[in-house]
Design brief:
Helix content: 55-70%
Number of strands: 5
Oligomer: single chain
Shape: elongated
Number of helices: 15
Order of helices and strands: HHHHHHHEEEHHHHHHEEHH
Strand order of the largest sheet: 1-2-3
Structural class: mainly alpha
Distance between the termini: 32 Å
Amino acid sequence: MTEPPQTAEPLPAPDGPARPAPGATAAAPAPQTPAAVRRRAVLAGTAVSALLILAIVLGSRLLRDFDSALLPYAVATVFLAFGVAYRYTVWISAPGARRLFRQGWRSFFSAANFRRAPTALPKMIATYLGFQKFLGARSHARWAAHQLLFWGCVLAALITFPLTWGWFTFTSGTGDGPGYEMRIWGFKVLGFDSLNIIGWLMFHGLDIAAVLVIAGASYFLWRRMKDRGAITGQRFAYDLIPLIALIVISVTGLLLTFSSIFLHGGGYEFLAILHMVSVVFTLIYIPFGKFFHIVQRPAAVGMQLFKYTSRRKDEELKDCRRCHEPIDTPEYVDNLRGTMKDLKLGFDEWAEYCPRCKRVLRGNAYLDHVKKGFK
């Protein structure tokens, strides 16, 4: 939304004083001090980390299925849990994010929304989170690369995290195969032959994920080096380090497989340490870098659900106060006004104007309050 200019005196609405919005009359919540937010974030991070440690202990059957060689990875996931909970708590403490968070969960648990649109949430999860169709409008190549990167990371996480925590185990009745059993929390789930296609996929799932990640990350790295628009605003630590880290993880993981198959284990220990360091670094980096948008994205789905379910077939859209063209649903406009009031921006009534009228009013304000000072 385009913001109006900051002027020496408040801009009057063209049709008189601003009308109060039904959903924006409540007093804004009391501001929170940074120290209070940090204390609450530390408590949230500590609680989530403790719950994860408890889940690791119980899920690995009191550590009987826990592989001590994977301890650094497990410790890194605990730090990851703390960082995600800490950063998320700080994020939703901001007025705008807090309102979005509440509206999203309110829409999610609304029985009326479910009766009105029972397929809305699964559809948005599939299209907005899974296939990210909004990226296709920008560039088909970027969408395809993002899909490779996204599904490669999802596959790697689904395999790596349970194995690291001791939730998944693969055992052989004969000691060296080819028959194996996959157990989850000690319960047998699947038996397979390591020499057939299912067994190959089981043991090379991380290699498949690595190939997908390398393809997607390489495209974005190439774009960061060639596209002028991307080069102009990019930062090395924020934009390039994540891509380099993903490629290093994937390449070292593939080299581990190459070493075990073709080099009879030559250089395996060095590659294992390099791979472990890159994974641990990336897991700790996730909450405090660009990868945090992975955690934020579901909140955007909640807001999309709120917008979708508020657009009833029999409900008229709120009109622009200047040109009387429809803007959006009253609920969505009132929610936007409430967010602007929480942020104390001082011009929340501008949420009731369409983008074109905002530009016109900004121009008029410039002529009335700025340009008239120059002869």
